[in-house]
Write the structure tokens for this entry.
Amino acid sequence: MTAFPSVVSASWVADHLEEEDFLLADVRGPNAHTRAHLPGSIPLVVGAPGQFTDREVVAAFADEAGLRLRRHGVTGEERLVLYDEGRCVSAASALQVVELAGHPQVAVLAGGLAAWEGELHEGAVVLEKTRVELEPRLDAFPTAEELLARLGDASLAIVDVRSPEEYSGEAGAPCDPRQGHIPGARNVEVSTLYAGQGLPRPADEIKALAGLEDGADVVAYCHSGSRSALATMAFRSAGYRARNYVGSWHEWSRHQELPMER
């Protein structure tokens, strides 16, 4: 089987488009997909998690995500590539949801639809449902409980991808009751990881910016999980085992028992 990276380019997709075990999925929504989509792609809406990572809530959401994959005909046996309009926020967020549902081979198309230079197709696609049930992977979603237990764990790098002002506690969203950062987190602003919209910098540049050892386990967070979804995509493109803490500071700041630094 062809090696399957976590982040792929438009040229990579073009080279593998005709392979039987390859599937493109458009996460923009069925209406946008009908208007214009990549050849052979299906519309795929897996939903978005809330900003709280209680284990029971995550488990219920994993089951719902698995059901949505079945309704879209996704079996888990294909190599699945997700794309959006180009910013990659939606695709990067959906990637972790698909992994939570249990899909073992999923990636994001860097630059999304905007990076595609080939023809686009129009029209609705008939989806064939499947009865295949995937085994959820709850470890795909870091929880506040996990991060608390691993503070000071040298095997895990926690990365705050907000602005330096948010990281220091000098600024932040008004809805957050506390301002600061998770203890031990390093600050790498997400914009520095990208060369252009939805296009991560080369791996060596990301490694230099992040200051992480090769093969490090990474958990990224921001305020609400969107910027950290992009950062997770960039870290994966550089070869790191990266996950997005979707609860992010929005959740962490609400629990007075969780420590913080300024």
